[in-house]
Amino acid sequence: AQSVTQLDSQVPVFEEAPVELRCNYSSSVSVYLFWYVQYPNQGLQLLLKYLSGSTLVKGINGFEAEFNKSQTSFHLRKPSVHISDTAEYFCAVSETGFQKLVFGTGTRLLVSP
Amino acid sequence: DAGITQSPRHKVTETGTPVTLRCHQTENHRYMYWYRQDPGHGLRLIHYSYGVKDTDKGEVSDGYSVSRSKTEDFLLTLESATSSQTSVYFCAISSTGGGNQPQHFGDGTRLSIL
After folding, report:
1. Does residue B1 register a pLDDT over 70?
2. What residues in A contact B104, CB-CB < 8 Å?
3. Do A43 and B102 touch (CB under 8 A)?
4. Is A80 within 8 Å of chain B by CB?
5. Which three-class secondary structure state does DSSP give residue A96?
6. If pLDDT is split at 50, 70 and 90, which confidence band does A94 have?
7. CA distance linking residue B96 with residue B32, whole number of Å
8. pLDDT band at A98 (very low <50, low <70, confident <90, very high)
């Protein structure tokens, strides 16, 4: 069975600084990978997804992620964060075949001025 | 945004009472899911449906039941609520069951059981 580990529960960063949110997964088969963002009192919104092809995936709001199969990682990055990026970010994995999404425990990104 | 409406948005109830949460979608998607979100656990799948009257258990299904009598509605029932079921509940939908299809989420129901 697949699993997802988000190594940091909280990441504080100053506005306009770069940020990386880490995600590692475990699976015995090929996977699809997703990053979702959750703003306060809202549901989850899809940021980006890796299905196949190029390992560098670009998403909304200037975020990107890189799939690294050898390290089983899918880290999320943004070169310059804004206050409005303050939210919780979830990494999720599903295996090929039926889609059961397995989520990590989330990383809270706190952007301060 | 995907047309997903969860009701109620907030509910406070007492231990031992039955509770039903509703998820309504306007996208005509075949797959619907119920998750619970708890601190330190992320989102965990409770039940899912792959068509009218077709449902299956997820990771944390004990104490929950579901029903889907119409494509657009997916109900989650706590037959006898317990304090451990205090959580935020999210409904999600997807057009197919393939792992490459992202799920779209509702805004959640915050349930408190006293």
Report:
1. no
2. 46
3. no
4. no
5. coil
6. confident
7. 10
8. low
Partners of residue A4 in chain B, C-beta under 8 Å = 42
Probe site for chain B from A10, A100, A102, A107 (most B CB atoms < 10 A): A100
**Helix H or strand E encompassing A29:** none
Check residue A13 and give its pLDDT: 97
* pLDDT per residue as tens digits for the range B16-74: 999 999 999 999 999 999 999 998 889 999 999 999 999 999 999 999 999 999 999 99
CB contacts < 8 A (A, B): 62
Q: Could you read off the pLDDT of A45-80 as tens digits, one per residue?
A: 999 999 888 999 999 999 999 999 999 999 999 999
Nearest CA in chain A to B103: A46
Mean pLDDT computed over A10-20: 97
Band the pLDDT of A107: cuts 50, 70, 90: very high
Residue A53 DSSP code: S
B57 touches chain A (CB under 8 A): no
Q: Which of A29, A41, A44 to mutate to test the interface with B (most CBs of B within 10 A)?
A: A44
Amino acid identity, residue B99?
Answer: G
Is the preceding omega at residue B8 within 30 degrees of 0, hence cis? yes
- Separation CA A112–CA B14 (nearest Å): 40
* DSSP E strands, A2-112: 3-5, 10-14, 19-21, 24-26, 31-38, 44-50, 56-58, 64-68, 73-78, 87-95, 102-103, 107-112
- Tell me the three state secondary structure of residue B41: coil
